[in-house]
Design goal:
Layout: H1 27-38, E1 46-49, H2 59-72, E2 79-83, H3 91-99, E3 104-107, H4 112-119, H5 123-136, E4 141-147, H6 155-164, E5 169-173, H7 190-206, H8 214-225, E6 242-243, E7 248-250, E8 264-265, H9 272-276, H10 279-294, H11 301-304, H12 309-314, H13 327-346, H14 359-367
Helix pairs in contact: 1-2, 2-3, 7-13, 8-14
Length: 375
């Protein structure tokens, strides 16, 4: 993950990552990333540009950074992705991104009124304008919807919005903000998140020909493959890294700007052994230890792995004392998927009572599709 800046022009109420006046990464730092990774690992790499708002780096940054990464690390067969609110997407920048087949993730919390109440007035229109620029240039855009303690009350309206507009739905629960005086104000309660996932499973099964709910796909893959298939449910500590604007290396984009989680600097070209000697690595390993203690009797352990380490610190003032607090929600939906599958096997193959599509029909749909790498 490359974080060109932690700055962002929007003022989302529940944001936990944006910093006003954050510096912007230089192209020299990108060159150092290339130099570091040339000898770091030899397996394929996906670069996700994240933030803050990564498009604040500007078109010239991407015009130089993308070929440096693509050709300088060609032996790693790099692919790319970008997470942006789309406000700064211009036709010129869209052309650069299209040249390197960069899929885009953006954020939209539902209809204009709901979205702008949470993300700031005018956000919806600016993002949809950027979306039209992206589509006009053939870019693949998928939206992430953040459910908060406020928007959970409008779950039906939000689902219908995504479905009626032909948009794929991927969702996140709002976390307590480590940068806010009211960290819990927008946070989604774990038990409510579990009920939301079950609700979305039901709505998805009823409308599989009209919408795709990526979280439900991912959760089903976990259960039926027996392993984590998305970053929340894998042991990410060895395989995910983020580089901040100044070249500091972190475990993930979510930790960027937190000094306690700096693992090194690309300017020093650290080896994996060097990173493992850092205090930040030790802190991340404590999450693994918590998983072994708290989750050892859980039937979902092999494909859940205790959830997300950052989520684990978001409720405890930045320190790791346990597993992901959304464990309650994960167990709820994993149990639901497993139990429904078992019931289907005992009754009609792939069809629930009443003739509605069931979990097996959804698994068939998932197996027939291949999703883009990097999103």
């Amino acid at each position: 993950m490359i974080i060109p800046t932690l700055g962002c022009p929007s003022k989302c109420s529940y944001c936990w990552s944006s910093e006003e006046g954050s510096p912007v990464m230089s192209i020299d730092t990108v060159r150092e990333i290339v130099g570091w990774l040339k000898g770091f690992r030899d397996d394929p790499v996906t670069f996700t540009f994240h933030g803050g708002e990564p498009l604040l780096a500007g078109v010239e940054f991407y015009r130089e950074a993308l070929p440096l990464l693509a050709y300088g690390l060609s032996h790693l067969t790099p692919s790319f992705a970008l997470q942006t609110n789309l406000w700064r997407l211009t036709p010129e920048l869209a052309e650069v991104l299209k040249r390197y087949d960069v899929p885009i993730g953006s954020s939209l919390d539902g209809p204009r009124e709901i979205n702008d109440f949470q993300r700031s007035e005018g956000y919806y229109d600016r993002t949809m304008h950027g979306y039209s620029v992206a589509r006009a240039h053939g870019l693949n855009v998928q939206f992430i919807c953040t459910f908060t303690s406020h928007s959970i009350k409008y779950r039906e309206e939000i689902f219908d919005f995504f479905m009626s507009n032909g948009l794929t739905l991927k969702l996140h629960p709002a976390l307590p903000s480590l940068r806010s005086d009211e960290p819990e104000r927008w946070a989604l309660d774990p038990s409510e998140y579990g009920e939301l996932l079950v609700y979305l499973l039901d709505r998805y099964l009823e409308n599989m020909d009209r919408i795709e709910v990526r979280n439900i796909n991912d959760l089903c893959r976990c259960v039926f493959s027996g392993r984590g298939t998305v970053c929340t449910f894998v042991d990410c500590i060895d395989n995910t890294f983020a580089v901040g604007p100044d070249g500091s290396i972190y475990p993930c984009y979510r930790f960027v700007g937190m000094p306690d989680y700096v693992m090194g600097s690309v300017y020093d070209r650290p080896s994996m052994d060097d990173i493992k000697k850092s205090e930040a690595w030790g802190r991340m390993n404590r999450f693994r230890e918590c998983v072994e203690v708290h989750c050892k009797r859980c039937k979902h352990l092999r494909y859940c792995r205790g959830g997300c380490p950052y989520n684990a610190i978001s409720h405890t003032d930045g320190k790791i004392h346990g597993v992901d607090p959304y464990c309650v929600a994960y167990r709820r939906i994993f149990d639901e998927i497993t139990e429904r599958f078992n019931r289907e096997l005992l009754s009609s193959f792939g069809v629930q009572s009443g003739g509605r599509p069931g979990i097996i029909a959804l698994i068939r749909k998932i197996a027939s599709k291949e999703e883009p790498r990097g999103l």
